[in-house]
Amino acid sequence: HIEFRREKPGFKVIAREPATLDGKAAVRIKVEYDSPAGSTAEEEIVSLRSGIVYNIGLRTTAARYQGDREQLETILRGFRFWKIHYCS
Q1: What is the pLDDT of residues 30-83, one digit of tens each?
Q2: Are 19 and 30 in contact (CB under 8 A)?
Q3: Could you tell me which of 20, 83, 32, 84 has the C-alpha nearest to residue 56?
Q4: Helix, coil or strand: residue 42
Q5: Under a CB-based contact definition with an 8 Å cutoff, are residues 27 and 49 in contact?
Q6: 3-state SS of 9-33?
Q7: DSSP label at 50?
Q8: If we measure between CA atoms, which residue out of 47, 43, 24 comes closest to residue 33?
Q9: Model pTM?
Q10: pLDDT for 5-22, tens place per residue?
Q11: What pairs with residue 30 in β-bridges?
């Protein structure tokens, strides 16, 4: 998870904004930090539904970010929550 990387050199939160995942409330977070491979970008979409935390993320180099983000958007558009049925 992104939070565990706060100790990385050059860590900065680029964006934190409301989002949706399959039409349900979510939070989208983007951070950048320095790594041995160069500048690293991470983006995560986090949603809580029925006590389950859903986390879909991307970790890539800054140079590859745009192309990889397009793939992430394709995954997010196709994501569907499982139907949860409760027994009484």
Answers
A1: 999 988 878 999 999 999 988 889 999 999 998 899 999 999 999 999 999 887
A2: no
A3: 20
A4: strand
A5: no
A6: CCCEEEEEEEEEECCEEEEEEEEEE
A7: T
A8: 43
A9: 0.78
A10: 667 788 899 999 999 999
A11: 15, 43
